[in-house]
Amino acid sequence: MRDGCTTSAAVLVLMVLSYCSPHRLPAPVAKVVRAQVPSFEHVFVVVEENENFSNVVGNTRDMPYLNHLAADYGLATNYYANTHPSINNYFILTAGRNGTRRPWIRTLSDLYPFDVEGENIASLLSEKGKTWKSYAEDLPLAGYVGDDRLPYLKRHNPFAYFANVRDSAAERENIVPFATFKRDLQNGSLPAYSFIVPDVYSDGHNDPATHSIASCGDRRALRDIDSWLRDNIDPLIKSRIFREGGLLLIVFDEACEDGPDADWVFDPTTPAIRGGGRVAALVVSSRTPPGTRSNEVYHHEAILRLSLRVLGIEQLPGLAASSPDMDRFFPKNGGGGGSP
User: Which of 2, 27, 153, 234 has the maximal Cβ count within 10 Å?
Assistant: First the structure.
């Protein structure tokens, strides 16, 4: 009996030693330093579609309003989308990871039909008692999580995929038609986090004249983006609630995917990795001085990280945990933002 126990104990010790040997220890993870970022009461994220940085920034003929914002507030000059085509860029903006799985990858990913499990900005906000809404233009009705109803596209509204939203009637009610945004602004009832989804004619995805997919640099599509922002977002920027505690992030989901202007760059320092190309990303707030620029390399998870941290949430999902902070848009001396 004693011999058996001794043998068993010896085997157990060997197993523990083997498991704890240096060869089995996990590799050290680089520590990410969390820069200081200011607190905001309200975050607004607006996502536009499918344009190279060069088609947008400096194009004052077709996009005078957007370029006015870039001059009066902040612009990330080295910002890259994560992938082509659209859908996983939206998931990275809101969950820090790709949401699709095989066989719905690459060109098939936009057709993804299933729920997306796991942590995301909606689950974190609700867990921390923060309010959120997805304002989707031409959404058929509040709480709708079904398929496309043109000119509304489900794949531009990641909250319609998240399992924690789809499985909860209360959470689904946070997905609302964009028409309610103006009312919430006027009533002072905007949530802590707003994800704003223009329809396919307002975000540059489709040409408003031909009703077909717009080519890169389509001037009608660019003008439509600009006029929509001026008509719908400028009243927000000029509001007291925004001046006192609002942060607006305007970003394009991806650069041109096809054609002579196709851009698949992920990061200019890692040319072997394919990504979604260089896109425009604007940071608008009363704490962002006019003409603020950052040449640091950012991807979509940086916007997710910033959105959570300025709302006081330090639990950062997926790639947001290791992203650089966008603190350069908020000088430590507290300089003010541009004119409304």
Answer: 153
